Amino acid sequence: MPEALVGAVENFARAHADAVADPLFRAELVRLWHDYTGRPFALTEATGFAACASNGICVLLKPEGLNRTGSHKINNTIGQAPLTRRLGKRRVVAETGAGQHGVATATAAALLGRECTIFVGAVDVARQALDVARMRLLGIGTGQRPGATSAEQAELAAARRRIAQLEAEVAIHRRANELLGQVVTPQGGSRRSR
Questions:
Q1: Separation of first and last alpha carbons in the chain
Q2: Structure pTM?
């Protein structure tokens, strides 16, 4: 994680802890997950698979594809977007390679009235044209960042833009929040979600 963003991540972590302790915030999340994304889903026992394994295991499937936007990514973004609103930030930013995180971020931003920028590499824009079209339908002006040809380059472009805006606008974390599709810690560790 770029050093310039550590303060924003620490601020977000404190705000998250405060929000989770607030019963009204938790109730809003439960309502959004239930009424908007359709959770919780019933688990389906995969009896045929268990029979093939023939060792007495029970295999349960959770149909995340039934979520609005067709993936599990909305579960995360629908949780982060209300926190962004609670913090008074009017804009969300995300990067995506496969497109589903971008669609989920654009969906959550549109639902809660936040401006939204999605960084997508040119290769991924071509490869994920349907998802890019869905993002644009949700109000995203463009899903591509010039010069970024892959998800990793789109992530780098997003970080460069955030750092430039930090310098130019004096602490962008006061106005925008990134809806992450991966685990990030202030210590700099991350685990990419695919």
A1: 18
A2: 0.72
